[in-house]
Every structure is written in C-alpha cells, then in structure tokens.
C-alpha cells in the first residue's frame, strides 16, 4: 500500500490550529503572536529575553528614584553586567553589586546572573534589585537606605 505523503489532506495547506497555543516544556509561547512581525500587535514581541527583562526592572527602580538623582550633587552611573570576573581562588559568596570610584563620578555595577540565581520568582528578584540598588546608592550618598526608599 503505497500512499503519497499528504494524500489524506489532498495537498491543502491550512493555517494554525484553532484554540490556545501551548507552552511546551516551558519554552515560551510560539506562533505569530509571540514573534515580531506584521501579525503581532504593533510588531512587538510577546517574549523578552532575561537580560531585557532585568534591564527593564532596573530602569523601573531607577525611574522611581529619579528625584534623588536630581537632588544629589554626586553623579552616579548605574551599569548592569552579566557576572563579575572573579579570580580562580575566590571562595567567598559571589557579589551582587559593586561600587567603583571613577574620576568625576561613581559607578554602581549590578550583576544580573548572581541576582537572578538567588531568586525563585519575579517578585523576589524585584525585591532584591530594590534592596541592592538602595543599599549601594545609600553607600555612595552617605545616607540611610530607608531615606531613599519611595515605597
């Protein structure tokens, strides 16, 4: 019994299956609504990379603290990096952030991967980012983190 491939369908190609799209094995949504293009609203992807999500979270935290940046005389740069470069003999806990003194400005470096690995969900990550940013800015500006917290 030799049959041609697709003979049951008569060679007709149909569109995607009706109903909800599945999220198989946690890989995220698939299909035209999850990818940027003419079929998605405003051509915006429904999925962000972890790096993009973390950058948006840090941006939201810094946006809430914007009035402090305008009031403080010291210029502070906030930078996000993936992970710190540590020597092979490092045995302490991996730092979540560091403060680097630069000529004319201070730089606060946030490390995305150590923060992400210590949190179970997005709410924990948001709380950790808030606390780390507040602690580091309070250290730079020599004030209490409670004085900075707008929440």
Q: Report the mean per-residue pLDDT as an integer.
A: 78
Domain count: 2
Give the amount of beta strand, in percent: 5-15%
The radius of gyration is 24 Å
Give the helices and strands as they follow along the chain: HHEEEHHH
Number of strands: 3
Pfam families: Zincin_1
InterPro entries: Zincin_1, Zincin_1_sf
Protein name: Zn-dependent protease with MMP-like domain
Region (Disordered): 1-46
Keywords:
Zincin_1_sf, 151 residues, Zincin_1, 3-stranded mixed beta sheet, Zincin-like, 2 domains, Zn-dependent protease with MMP-like domain
Task: Tell me about this structure.
- The protein contains five helices and three strands.
- The protein is α+β, with helices and mostly antiparallel strands and 151 residues long.
- The protein folds into two domains: 29 residues, no CATH class; 99 residues, 2-Layer Sandwich (Zincin-like), CATH 3.30.2010.20.
- It has a three-stranded mixed β-sheet.
- The radius of gyration is 24 Å and the shape is globular.
- The model has no long low-confidence stretch (mean pLDDT 78).
- InterPro entries: Zincin_1, Zincin_1_sf.
- This is Zn-dependent protease with MMP-like domain.
Which helices and strands occur, and which strands form pairs?
Blueprint lengths: L49 H15 L1 H6 L4 E6 L15 E6 L2 E7 H6 L4 H20 L3 H4 L3
Parallel strand pairs: 1-3
Antiparallel strand pairs: 2-3
Helix pairs in contact: 1-4
Organism: Aeromicrobium panaciterrae
InterPro entries: Zincin_1, Zincin_1_sf
Pfam families: Zincin_1
In short:
With 151 residues, the protein is of the alpha+beta class. Helix content is 34%, strand content 13%.
């Amino acid at each position: 019994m030799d049959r041609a491939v697709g003979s049951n369908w008569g060679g007709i190609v149909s569109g995607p299956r009706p109903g909800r799209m599945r999220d198989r094995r946690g890989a995220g949504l698939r299909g035209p609504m999850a990818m940027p293009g003419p079929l998605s609203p405003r051509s915006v992807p429904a999925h962000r990379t972890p790096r993009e999500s973390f950058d948006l979270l840090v941006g939201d935290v810094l946006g809430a603290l914007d009035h402090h940046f305008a009031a403080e005389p010291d210029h502070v740069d906030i930078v996000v990096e993936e992970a710190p470069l540590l020597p092979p003999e490092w045995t302490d806990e991996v730092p979540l952030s560091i403060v680097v003194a630069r000529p004319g400005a201070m730089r606060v470096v946030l490390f995305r991967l150590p923060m992400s690995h210590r949190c179970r969900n997005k709410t924990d990550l948001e709380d950790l980012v808030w606390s780390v940013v507040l602690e580091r800015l309070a250290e730079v500006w020599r004030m209490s983190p409670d004085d900075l917290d707008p929440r």
